[in-house]
Amino acid sequence: MSHPGFDNYVALSQTRQVARLPFITFEGTEGCGKSTQVQRLVARLESIGVPFLVTREPGGTPIGETIRELLQFAPQGTGMTPETELLLFEASRSQLVREVIKPALEAGSCVISDRFFDSTTVYQGAARKLDLKVVRQINLFAVDQCIPDLTIVLDIDAKTAQARMQKPRRPDRMEQEPAEFYERVRDAYRQLAAEEPRRVSLIDGSKSADQIEDEIWSLITSRFPTVASQFARTTARS
Ligand SMILES: Nc1ncnc2c1ncn2[C@@H]1O[C@H](COP(=O)(O)OP(=O)(O)OP(=O)(O)O)[C@@H](O)[C@H]1O
Ligand SMILES: [Mg+2]
Fold it and tell me: Is pLDDT above 50 for 11?
């Protein structure tokens, strides 16, 4: 997965000094535990008084939520080409970055997103096999230099994910893909973590939700002094 666009990511994500609160994204295959861990992280931030904003992709804005419905459940979606799919995800993302994420970071909030541009690299690039260079370029255009400070990938095998998704739910278009598609997705996430080890942390998603929550919290407090100092203040008080 080595290509020119990748250098841009690394340059942007590694040269930025993070004095403000961080922008953190959660990634991984369906059912890996993203939403569970987003909720747990939010509860921790709330308990120590760190301001935060939670969002998700696709969606997070009125325009984005309409696109989400079209992408995931609309009957017209069955005929959607991979190129259209890519552009719809990016349209939702560009709106979300400008309307929600950037203003929240600038206003002094931590921002947490359940999926972000790595999902597009992995699903539309690696799994749907669109030209990765093009995907990365459109990603960069959509995010306008708003690169996550930390991306947590919850890594689990397809069988475990499948078992977790047995609960009644409305399957979206991606969940109707064959098992081989998931393997490509998982491999691509692992590769991303190998390529960008500073930004992307791979966490074993098969552990208990409590263990994963602790691991993520250690990572965040060790990486971001703004969160750590608030945590230390609260612990000292109690
Ligand atoms: N570490 C864990 N161990 C066991 N079960 C878990 C764990 N984390 C989450 N679950 C359960 O697995 C299911 C899927 O978790 P969750 O909804 O958080 O995944 P997700 O990555 O957000 O999925 P999706 O991509 O479909 O939104 C839920 O029923 C959740 O309670
Ligand atoms: Mg979820």
Answer: no
The answer, yes or no, to whether residue 126 has pLDDT greater than 60, is yes
Q: Which atom of ligand 1 is nearest to the CA of 39?
A: 18
Cis amide leading into 225 (omega within 30) = no
pLDDT of 13 over the 70 cut:
no
Average pLDDT of the residues of the chain? 90
Q: CA angle, 42 as apex, 38 and 43 as ends, to 5°? A: 120
pTM score over 0.85? yes
- Residues linked to residue 113 through DSSP beta bridges, in sequence order: 25, 55
Give strand pairing partners of 96: none
Place of tokens 């190998």: 194
Ligand 1 pocket mutation pick from 25, 26, 35, 36 by most atoms within 8 angstroms of CB: 36
| Domain 4-237 class, CATH top level | alpha beta
Residue ranges of the domains in the chain? 4-237
